[in-house]
Amino acid sequence: MPTHNSKIAIQGSAVIANIIRSFVTQKADWSTIWAVIDDTIEQTSNLAYDLFQASLKNRIWLAKSIVNQNLSLDKTLDLLSAEIGSSMETIETVPAAIALAYLAQDNIKNCAIYATNLGGDTDTIASIACAITASFNPDINYEDLEFIEKTNKVDISELADKMVESVQLRKKL
């Protein structure tokens, strides 16, 4: 997501952060999350400058309506790609990631597969969508995790430990 000081960037980041926070700290369900999304967008509506883009709220709700049509997986992904998009733009990335997490519900592996099959900026969308899904259900299949680490030549446990250390250090400051 862009890190620029624009309304869309702030709204997109805040929406994702609040979804994850709500799943982790409040054990929210998807019916609650839709209200969290609306509230977050409303609270951030007057921050920064407007790039005169489509409404993030409307785009997220459109993505939800596509998933709620209960079409085949291929058709759902095709519609998300055509109607929502899957570029690096926040107006596409955030709604697509939320829709894929909603579609996958509590299955991280399916979420990653859906994001990959969506096309476009798959690594960004998969990262966001899987983070949402994992916050809803942190049950990670360690065989899949080992495969990801081996394929990408990365030690996720080490990265996670560094993140925890960083948070703990910040709390001391």
Walk me through the structure.
This protein is mostly helical and 173 residues long. It has two domains: 7-138, ADP-ribosylation/Crystallin J1 (ADP-ribosylglycohydrolase fold), CATH 1.10.4080; 141-173, no CATH class. It is built from nine helices and no strands. The protein is globular. The two termini are 28 Å apart. The model has no long low-confidence stretch (mean pLDDT 91).
Give the SSE order as H and E letters.
HHHHHHHHH
Known CATH architecture of the largest domain? Orthogonal Bundle
Instruction: State the separation between the terminal residues, measured CA to CA.
Output: 28 Å
Mean pLDDT: 91
Shape: globular
Helix content: over 70%
Structural class: mainly alpha
CATH superfamily of the largest domain: ADP-ribosylation/Crystallin J1
- Could you say what the CATH topology of the largest domain is called? ADP-ribosylglycohydrolase fold
Number of domains: 2
Helix tally?
9
User: What is the makeup of the main sheet?
Assistant: none
How would you describe this structure in keywords?
ADP-ribosylglycohydrolase fold, mainly alpha, 2 domains, 9 helices, single chain, 173 residues, 74% helix
What's the short story on this structure?
The protein has nine helices and no strands.
Write the topology of this structure:
Layout: H1 7-26, H2 30-43, H3 56-68, H4 73-84, H5 90-104, H6 108-118, H7 122-136, H8 142-152, H9 156-172
Helix pairs in contact: 1-2, 1-5, 1-7, 3-4, 3-5, 5-6, 5-7, 6-7
